[in-house]
Amino acid sequence: MLTWIRGLWQSRSVNVPQIDVDAPAITAQESIRVAASLPLPPVKRTKSPQDESNCPIRQAGLGNAKQRIRLRQLGLTTLEQIAACEPSDWADKHSLPAVYQRLLVRWQWAIAASSKLPPLRPIDCLLAHAVHRRTIGAIARSVPSVLHRDIYRFSLSSAGAKLVGEHPLPSQNEIEIWVAAARNKLPLPYSPR
């Protein structure tokens, strides 16, 4: 059973794992121990301009293709336009479903948060929020390897896969840069956990 988990972890080309019904059952604790002992694979990530307010939505890592097409049809193509729009007025004016109104509010939060901590892109802010690092202080108190592990594990869930989409995950080096920048932002000495 352990070799099956290792093989599944290393191949990762299969979206839905095939379950071997003849394999002996293992406990949840044993499977967590095995998964935690496996190394995280390296992920290549493309760089994007950080301080450009005219950065396209796709380059910032926000949304899937369907969402970006729908917003492009309505005239929202850059981060600056999303940050400037009023989601409730925009939804009423263009008769958007409530889902898009909530989406715009969430993206506005991510754009504002990424402007406060420059190494993070808006998608990085959404990922950090999803793994319960909702403030600069929470990121500063994080251990980079633990934060990287949490983001990687979240990306394996259905909600995480939906949020990440086609965008690569941040590397551990990038997360170390986030944590260092967050620690430099804090006025008082931080205390790592």
How are the SSEs placed, and which strands pair?
Elements: H1 2-11, H2 28-37, H3 57-60, H4 65-73, H5 79-84, H6 87-93, H7 98-116, H8 122-130, H9 136-140, H10 144-156, H11 158-164, H12 172-185
Helix pairs in contact: 6-7, 7-8, 10-11, 10-12
How would you describe this structure to a colleague?
There is one protein chain. By secondary structure, the chain is mainly α. 59% of the residues lie in helices and 0% in strands. The protein has twelve helices and no strands. It is globular and about 55 Å long.
Q: Could you give a quick summary of the protein structure above?
A:
The protein is mostly helical and about 190 residues long. It has helices spanning about 1-10, 30-35, 55-60, 65-75, 80-85, 85-95, 100-115, 120-130, 135-140, 145-155, 160-165, 170-185.
Strand fraction equals: under 5%
What does the largest sheet look like? none
Helix-residue proportion: 55-70%
Alpha carbon gap, first and last residue: 35 Å
Cα-based radius of gyration, to the nearest Å: 19 Å
Mean pLDDT: 78
Please identify the structural class as seen in this structure.
mainly alpha
Q: Tally the helices: what do you get?
A: 12
| N to C succession of SSEs | HHHHHHHHHHHH
Based on DSSP secondary structure assignment, what is the total number of beta strands? Answer: 0
> Looking at the structure, what is the overall shape?
globular
Low-confidence stretches: 46-51
